[in-house]
Amino acid sequence: MQEVKLTVSYDDYEDGIRMETLIRELATKPEVGSLESLIIGDWGQAYENSPDEFMGTLIELASSFPSLKKLFIGDMGFEECEVSWIIQTDLTPLLVAFPELKSFTVKGSSGLSLEPIEHAKLEELIIICGGLPKSVLASITKAKLPELRKLELYLGVDDYGFDGSLQDVLPLLEQGLFPKLVYLGLKDSEIQDEIAKAAAEAPILDQLEILDLSEGTLSDEGAEALLASDKIKKLKHLNLSYHYMTDEMLIRWKRSGVSVDVSEQQQSDEDDWRYPSLTE
């Protein structure tokens, strides 16, 4: 058993089915000992109910999942629940309960908190949301994750939870915070130009292979700083997809010799507003 996704649909929830029950049923299956990836989808009216509804059960039964390496909390589409509506909670106890985890993904940031994490084996941390609170950013910068190789954060907009500024992002651009980090994603931001300019000469580029600044409001302003950087040229790949760069800038990227993704060019609206890819 490689991967299982558990979901409680609207109709299931109305019929009295709960995520706690699905987890208990899964734990009784003889093949669950080999389960490597568990995906928790909609746990039933996630716009009103948090993972507290089932977290205690999952933690209680953690020993039933000895091979679990990947855990995703909140994998649901907008037709089930808009990302900004998903109610989260303090998910730190899950990381404590599963010390063998290598990948942890969270979708939704309303009510989300993480205490400064200490995890000996986690290699991948992904948070997908329309606005990441600065309190969560601060917790991540204080985390002790010696094996972390990939950090992917959707920063979003202030209307949907991002209450920080560039100053809250800057600690993630320091070298050595996570010694084995090779992929850094600071994505989906309404301050993507500011982040790009800060990242262009950031110390962390000396250890990265991939920098991902996609899904945000990047324009020629931020792109100029990236193009001028010798550190950027040393990356294996730069992801700038979904952006607001001009045709002229795209031509310059194609001539730059940098492995770069500049797909999904966007156009500002009539009031010159630019929007990240994922907000509500």
Automatic annotation (TrEMBL):
<dbReference type="Pfam" id="PF13516">
    <property type="entry name" value="LRR_6"/>
</dbReference>
<dbReference type="InterPro" id="IPR032675">
    <property type="entry name" value="LRR_dom_sf"/>
</dbReference>
<protein>
    <submittedName>
        <fullName>Leucine rich repeat (LRR) protein</fullName>
    </submittedName>
</protein>
<dbReference type="InterPro" id="IPR001611">
    <property type="entry name" value="Leu-rich_rpt"/>
</dbReference>
<dbReference type="InterPro" id="IPR047722">
    <property type="entry name" value="STM4015-like"/>
</dbReference>
